[in-house]
Amino acid sequence: MITPELPQLPFPRRDVLDIAPLYRTLQDTAPISPVRTPAGDVAWLVTRHAEAKALFADPRLGRSHPNPSQAARISGAALLGGPIGDPATEVADHSRMRRLLTPAFSARRMHALEAHVADMVEDLLDQLAERTPPADLHEALSFPLPVLVICELLGVPYADRDRFRVWSSGAAGLTDRAAASAALGKLVAYMHELIARKRVEPGEDVISDLIAAQNQSHYGDQQMAGLAAGLLFAGHETTVARIDYGTLLLLTYPDQRDALCHDPALVDSAVEEILRMAAPSGGGLPRYARADIDIAGVTIRTGDAVLLAGAAANRDPAAFPDPDRFDITRNPNPHLAFGHGPRFCIGASLARLELHAVFAALPQRFPSLELTVPLDQLELRTDLLTGGVTALSVTW
Ligand code: HEM
Fold first, then answer.
1. How far is the CA of 262 from the centre of ligand 1 (A)?
2. Residue 26, burial from CB neighbour count under 10 angstroms (0-12, 13-18, 19+)
3. Predicted confidence band at 2 (pLDDT cuts at 50, 70, 90)?
4. How many independent structural domains does the chain possess?
5. Model's pTM, two decimal places?
6. Is ligand 1 within 6 A of the CB of residue 235?
7. The domain that contains 215 carries what CATH number?
């Protein structure tokens, strides 16, 4: 690609709830457009719903690259900043990973967790109610809940949370790749130890299940530790940011908050709308073309990097009438917040369960909740892969 002046990611945006206006321009003029990544390389950015959905499911795109040192990098992130895996075995490795992990999120297990998650939310809200306002909802609810839940699911002692909080957000760091790799290494080492302990003393948890399935899966301990660290990471900051965003959206659109208060049955569609609108970070995860792909008037060449901009696709007017309107009754709502196709988020049902528990309880318990800081003064974290806000000061 010849690349004089390409749009530079991350694109500027007006406030944390808005998506970058440049996404809309690209949707209209160049829905699959070359852009400059934060790492300074060139990638194709896909902004329309139809093409993003098609490419999410396209087997000609993968995470690996035949010449990783030549591959365009997206960022300095230790995780997902560039290619991963071996092109020769990627498809088989991926289906083995899904086979091993999918049972951990079975409908039965999720159902068993449901009442427990609702209790965790009640406890956190009780503790919040005891504070004198203002308080930081991020610290009081959005952060602890997904950590409690993932600890419970994986069988990680909650007492260790402060240690892996540092590693998990360290591993999501975009600015210092060596520091991010070191943090990820610590998270994996921690999981390694935990696996050794669970081998001796198994529990009712996913890590114990993974150990039990280890012989069939042919995973070594190091690979298992990587998998467990990946789950802890994938299931944690992503959900934290959606709780913050859901709260921000409901507080910014009081008519929608009141509607949810009056009709709690709207919580399911409210959660889907929160997932659609939440855009805590600009980026998508990198994919690389395994073959030439002709789509929407462009040819993506073998080896090119491709970013599927879910945040833009989720506000594509061709898929969502009045796309910037937060409408908790929106139906249908075919958002791509969890991706689509073979890599569809494994933890989607868990994330939905957590968001459901939060937004069923929060508006009822705190009907007078308000932000103490105007929206345009909230800053997004651009130094983390997962984005999001660092604090959410509220009063009631
Ligand atoms: C609201 C919270 C969440 C959001 C928005 C989210 C989003 C996503 C997205 C968009 C993908 C697909 C990435 C791609 O195709 O490039 C994905 C994959 C994945 N997610 Fe989530 N996720 C969330 C919560 C979770 C949770 C709670 C877990 C587990 C505890 C989890 C585990 C995973 C895993 C393991 C994958 C990789 C699937 C694969 O490559 O086949 N996620 N997630």
1. 32
2. buried
3. low
4. 1
5. 0.95
6. yes
7. 1.10.630.10
